[in-house]
Amino acid sequence: MNIHEYQAKDFFSRYGIPTAEGIICRNPKSCSEAYCDLHSSKVVVKAQVLTGGRGKAGGIKLANSVSQTVEHASSILGMEIKGHTVDRVMITQAVNIESEYYVSFVIDRSSKSTILIMSREGGVEIEEVAAKTPEKIFKIAIDPFTGIPNFLAARAARMLFDRNEIVKQAIPIIQNLYRLFIDKDASLAEINPLVITKEGKLLAIDAKMNFDDNALYRQNEVEVLFEPTMEEKKEQEAKAKGFSFVHLGGKIGCMVNGAGLAMATMDMIKLYGGEPANFLDIGGSSNPNKVIEAMKLLLSDKEVKVVLINIFGGITRCDDVAKGIKEAFKQINTNIPVVIRLTGTNEKEGRDLLKETSFHNANTMGDAIRKAVELSLNK
Amino acid sequence: MSILIDKNTRVVVQGITGRDGGFHASKMKIYGTNIVAGTSPGKGGMVTDFGVPVMNSVHEAVDNEGANTSVIFVPAPFVKDAIMEAADAGISIIVCITEGVPTLDVVYAHRYASSKGSKLIGPNCPGVISPGKSLVGIMPGNIFKEGNTGVISRSGTLTYEVVYNLTKQGMGQSTAIGVGGDPVVGLYYKELLEMFQNDPDTYSIALIGEIGGDAEEQAAAFIKENITKPVAVFIAGSTAPPNKRMGHAGAIISSGSGTAREKKEAFEAAGIPVADEPSQIPSLLR
Q1: DSSP codes, B61-115
Q2: Distances A320 to A315, A325, B231 between C-alpha atoms, Å
Q3: Contact B214 A246 (CB under 8 A)
Q4: Taking 90 as the threshold, does the pLDDT of residue B286 lie above it?
Q5: Which A residues 103-132 touch B at CB under 8 Å?
Q6: What is the pLDDT of residue A379?
Q7: Which H or E run includes A212?
Q8: Would you name the residues of B annotated as active-site residues?
Q9: Of A31, A352, B30, B268, which has the maximum CB count within 10 A?
Q10: Percentage of chain B surpassing pLDDT 90?
Q11: 3-state DSSP assignment of residue B17
C-alpha cells in the first residue's frame, strides 16, 4: 500500500526527520492562503498522486508570487499523471539546495532483512544510478535484533557526508527513519532527495513510503490512509470474498486455483494467441458459493467472451469442484461458452459429473487453453 | 535418499487444534508421516480424534516425543512467536504453511531461527514431501511418486501441475519443496539446489519460479557454477502487469525489474532450458 508524499512527511515530522514546511490544498483559492501562511517568497507547488514521475509530467512547479502559485496550482489540479487524477497539491517553502543525497530503507529478499540504501547521487531515479554506476550505491543490512546503534548510524552517515556538522544531523535522521520503518511495518521508507541547504541544514525534500499489506491489520493509522482506485476497489471486493483478482482487459475470463497456476494460465493464453481478461485465484475451495461469486465477477466484465476454468485438485477434490460448478450454473444465466479443465484428485469422478453438460471439457491445460483461445477468436 | 525429510522425520504440528492444522495433520498421518505430537497452548493432555497427543509447547514435544521437525498452521499474527518457539526448542526443520504473515515478523523469526541453527521453509508455502517417506505440509500426496527428480517451487498448485506431468511420464520425485510466495521466506533456490546436488538419489532438478525479486537470476548463476545435474525451469508471470500483486505478496514486478523475461534470459544465458509450458518439463529433463 502506498501513501502520498504529504502523509509520509507527517510521519517524518512525528519521527523527528526535518522536512520543508508544507500546506495541502484542494483548490486554487486555498493555495493563495497557503502561500501567505508560508511566509516564503519562493514556493513549490507539488502534485500529490500515488505514482512516481510527477516532475517529468509537469506536476511540480516553482512559484515566486501568489498569482503564480494559484496559476500553477490551477494547471496541476485536475491533471492526469499515469492514470491518476491530481485532486490535491502541496505548497511548500522552496529551499536553497547545495547538494542532494539518497537515503532509504527497504526489505531485501536475498539478505532476508531490512537494508539501508544510500547514495551521494540524490534527486535522480535510484534504479538508474544502481544500473549505471552501482559503485555509487551503499547498502547496509540491518540485524533486526540490534537495529541501528549509534556507531552504525555514524558509519553510514560518513559514507554520505564529509563535514562533521552534517554527519551529526544525519545520524538521528538515519536512526529515526529506521524506527519509523519498523514501527509502521513499512516495505519502503525513502528520502530522495535528502538535501544540504545553503544554510547548512539537512532536509527531506521528498518523502515516499510503502507498507506491507500483510501487516495492515495492526497498523490502523496507516490503513485509514488507503485510497483505492476503481480497479483496486474491485480487487478489494474480490479479496473480501477470498479471491485474488487483477483486471487485465482481454476476452478470456480465467478462474484458477492457486496464484502460480493462475499466472501460468494467463501466460499460456497469450502464448497460444489469446488475451486473458484477468488474473483470478479462487484459492483452495470447491464451495459452490465461491464458484458463483467468481463467475459473477468474471461476467461483470463485458469484454469477457469465454470463461476458462482451470482447477488442479490437490487437497480440493475434482468431484467436489464439478458439483460446485454445476450448482453455480444452475443459478447463473449466460450464453458465454465455458471451458473446464479438472485434473488431480478424483479427476475421473469430476469429469463424469460434467459429461452431460454444455461445458467444453478438456483433458490437459494445453487443450483447455487452445479451446478457449479458439472460441475467443471466433467471437 | 531424499533431502530435508525422510522416514526418520518426527513431526510436531503447531496449531493442531485449528481447522486447517487438524485437517492437514490427519492427511499427513494417513500419508505415513510420523506425526508425534501437536501443540495448542492450554490444551495439553488432549488427544486428537486421529490419535495424536496435544501438548502445550514445542519444548514438550521435543522432550517427550523427540520431535525434530515442525509444521506451523497458527494464524498469521502468531507465526513469529511460533517459529521462534520451535527454534528455541531445538527443532531443526521448521515448515510454515500460514499465509499473510507480516514481512518484518518473518525477518525477525528467520534471523532467530538461523541463530539457533534451525532451517525455515516458508511461510506461505505448501511444504515439503519426500514421496513414499514423509509429507510435511499440505501437498496432495497421491499425485507424487517416489523417484529421482528434485522439485523446487515458489508456488503451490503450479508445483502440482508440474509434478503431475512428471509422474504421468514415469518420473518420480526424490523431494519436492514449495519455498513460499512471500518476499521474505526461509530456504531458497541456492540452498536447496546445493542439497539436491549432494543427494545421490536426485538425478535431475525442476525449478519453478515466478515474477518478483531476483532470486531466479541468482539461481541461474549458481546452477551454472555449481550444479552438474540436469535442471529445467518454468517461470510464471510473463503476462503480469507491473506494480500488481499477482496473488503472492512476492509476485510483483516493481520498477521494471523482476520480470519473467529477465529471468528466462538469465537461465537461457546460463545454458539452462526454460519450458514455455509446465508440461514440457519432463522432456527437458530427460
Answers
A1: HHHHH---EEEE-S-GGGHHHHHHHHHHTT-SEEEE------HHHHHHHHHHHHH
A2: 11, 9, 36
A3: no
A4: no
A5: 107, 109-110, 112-114, 127
A6: 66
A7: none
A8: 248
A9: A31
A10: 88
A11: coil
Do A342 and B161 touch, CB atoms closer than 8 A? no
A24: left (phi over 0), alpha (psi -120 to 50) or beta: beta
The mean predicted confidence, pLDDT, of chain A is 92
Give the closest-approach CA distance of B268 to chain A in angstroms.
Answer: 18
**Is A114 within 8 Å of B102 when comparing Cβ atoms?**
no
Contacts 24+ apart (CB under 8 A), A267-272: A267/B236, A267/B237, A267/B238, A267/B239, A267/B260, A268/A365, A268/A366, A268/A369, A268/B276, A268/B277, A269/A308, A269/A369, A269/A372, A269/A373, A269/B239, A270/B238, A270/B239, A271/B238, A271/B276, A271/B277, A272/A369, A272/A370, A272/A373
Q: Phi and psi dihedrals of A107, rounded to 5? A: -80, 130
- For cell 502561500, the residue is A35
Measured distance CA(A377)–CA(B14) in Å, rounded: 50
Answer for the pair A175, A15: CB distance below 8 angstroms, yes or no: no
Asked if the C-beta of B112 comes within 8 angstroms of chain A's C-beta atoms, the answer is: yes
Confidence of residue B254 (pLDDT cuts 50, 70, 90): confident
Chain B nearest C-alpha distance from A282 (Å) = 10
Does residue A206 have a pLDDT over 80? Answer: yes
Q: Within 13 Å and on the Cβ side, how many CA atoms surround A168?
A: 5
Asked if A144 and B143 come within 8 Å (Cβ–Cβ), the reply is: no
The DSSP annotation for A291-303 comes to: HHHHHHHHHTSTT
Picking from A284, A268, A266, the residue whose alpha carbon sits closest to that of residue A345 is A284
ipTM of the complex: 0.92
DSSP annotation of A19 reads B
Instruction: Calculate how close chain B gets to A273, using CA atoms only, in Å.
Output: 12
Q: Is the link from the previous residue into B123 a cis peptide, with omega within 30 of 0?
A: yes
- What is the rounded distance in angstroms from the CA atom of residue B108 to the CA atom of residue B25? 27
Q: What is the spatial distance between Cα B160 and Cα B170, in angstroms, rounded to a whole number?
A: 15
Break chain A down into helix, strand, coil percent, rounded to 5. 40, 25, 35
Read off the pLDDT of each residue in A255-281 and give the average, rounded to a whole number. 94
A354 Cβ contact partners less than 8 Å away, ≥ 6 residues apart: A322, A325, A326, A340, A342, A361
Give the pLDDT confidence of A362-377 residue by residue, as tens digits. Answer: 989 999 999 999 999 9
Rounded Cα distance, B207 and B22, in Å: 30
Q: What is the pTM of this model?
A: 0.92
Q: What is the pLDDT of residue A285?
A: 62
Q: Where are the beta strands (DSSP E) in A68-136?
A: 80-81, 84-85, 89-93, 97-108, 113-119
In a 13 Å sphere around the CA of B35, the CA atoms on its Cβ side amount to: 31
- If one counts every other C-beta atom within 10 angstroms of the C-beta of residue B29, the result is 18
- Mean pLDDT computed over A232-239: 83
